[in-house]
């Protein structure tokens, strides 16, 4: 039966291969171990390579599977199927411009299949040179530093974070209405031009080794500093007296003395800008109400707890989901709370619920991490980094669960809204937070009754007070467990507090300290 | 006139036979599948539906998903995706990952809804695929052929998703 299905897969590939204009021939695969011939065909400008020939040249194996073909090279396995321009390697997709085809019963894949596979699984570059008909596989260029760019407007300051894959030499030059980060180390630009809806930054362009930040007005002034682990260049822009054109010396930031306990809290008002979120039947937009609640919550927490509170957005602006947690990491926040309003197709849906992150297949991740650690020679692959990042996040899940539980319990007791409980889900805004993190859905904006109630000052105050109490409760509990606060001696006549009566030893205060080399060190906690 | 009628009738008969032959060749047969929709209990529950499906799972999955986005037949169940959602394709890959490619104006322009509806919509697809096709273990979503961060700002689509049992009515688990 399996053989029949494989034949079926081949038949589908064959059907997909009926294309008129084509040239075929032999080309050369150049690898670190030698050169090998392989068969290729070019159809409508797309180069397809014989999967069997290339895999053989790379010392791997290819085998038919019920749904396509499975390719193994070294420790890595990838798969592709008929009629799909996506392959898979581990949890990642390999995107191809067109689906694979079959010629005389043999699978041919777009050469980009191997580019995606080997870059993701083996940190190798795959380059096709049409002039010499050579497909070159080589170790990824180590001397070109990867750069990722993020921009967020926080408390009136536009903050650009350039995260580098390795330390790089650079200088910063001020131009009349732009700043230029001039790299002296080769870099891989993530884009040519990116336009922003930001009060201070109009767009960012890459040209050669220059990253140019184009400002919206001449009077916008910038400061720069650098961070380590991972290496980052941070540029802050605000309205003010602009610096004279010339060079700007970025200053290394001294690590602040790290005090234990809950010192910094990041509150994230959900959605913003053109991402309006859910809209109630009366027209109330989620993005507006989350900002109102978040502002009130920030004021309440700052005044009652004396903690530093940072909002991920202070106005109706677009902030990407990645930027929200990146900000929390950058500020070394001790807690992250995303505030949302819910919506459902069930018209009378009501109540609040609190989420923390679910990470699936932790055992599988741990296994793969161990495999990769054994296989890694001298450097960690980007996949390993990602896996370790996932593992690091898991260490916060216990604390996130406690934090979410506190929020849900306080909301239930204070507001008498329906209790929809504490749940786990793979929410993007919680992915990547290296601190206890939760997302609260305070009510259903899609329910006309709740929509009306949510707009009243009285109800908003109730919710803000409840969440503030939850943060206070979690803070006290956490700081007691790590020994900053001495637990109150039990009063002779008082009833023992329910959480303190158990005989189990106190939970680890902070998530277990990371093993050397894990990504937690990147956040300088 | 009569001759013309005969020619048309003959052509129709021939076309019908051709379609039947194609169905036989592709082993298309009516199968009963379970499509998952949200009920008043705010959980996913199966709605059985008879659908003409090719025998191979790889070819049948997109057909089932196109049935799913049409919406429920039962008045007690609810449509989860925007009405203009289209299933551009669905591909079963070796090792059980199904790549589901969604499109449509709302998903393209930006879907504004709450986390609950987005969770239910995403997992109605995951549940409908994995419950009906044993070879399918997980679903990876793309939108308009491109990897997407989320559908509506909440559920991360950067990895493939397996079933989430607490979203499913316990009677159907």
Describe the structure.
The complex is a heterodimer of chains A (about 525) and B (about 170). Chain A has about 525 residues and is an alpha+beta fold. Chain A has ten helices and 30 strands. In chain A, about 25% of the residues lie in helices and about 35% in strands. In chain A, the strands form five sheets. Chain A has a seven-stranded mixed beta sheet with strand order 9-10-3-2-1-12-11. In chain A, strands 17-13-14-22-21-24 form a six-stranded mixed beta sheet, covered by helices on one side. In chain A, a hairpin with a 2-residue loop joins strand 7 (about 85-90) and strand 8. In chain A, helix 4 (about 285-305) crosses helix 10 (about 455-480), helix 6 (about 360-375) runs antiparallel to helix 7 and helix 8 runs antiparallel to helix 10. The radius of gyration of chain A is 27 Å and the shape is globular. Chain B contains four helices and seven strands; from the N terminus they run αββαβββααββ. Mean pLDDT of chain B is about 85; it is low at about 1-15. With about 170 residues, chain B is of the alpha+beta class.
Give a quick summary of the entry:
Chain A has 525 residues and is an alpha+beta fold. Chain A has helices at residues 2-16, 51-57, 112-122, 286-305, 321-330, 362-375, 382-394, 397-415, 448-454, 457-481; strands spanning 22-31, 34-43, 46-50, 61-65, 68-73, 76-80, 86-89, 92-95, 101-103, 106-110, 124-129, 134-139, 145-154, 157-164, 170-175, 178-183, 187-188, 193-195, 201-207, 210-215, 220-227, 232-239, 246-248, 251-252, 264-269, 308-311, 335-342, 352-357, 419-425, 437-444. Chains A and B meet through α1, β5, β6, β7 and β27 of A and β4 and α4 of B.
What structural keywords apply?
heterodimer, A: 525 residues, alpha+beta, seven-stranded mixed beta sheet, six-stranded mixed beta sheet, 10 helices, 34% strand, globular, disordered N terminus, B: 173 residues, 26% strand
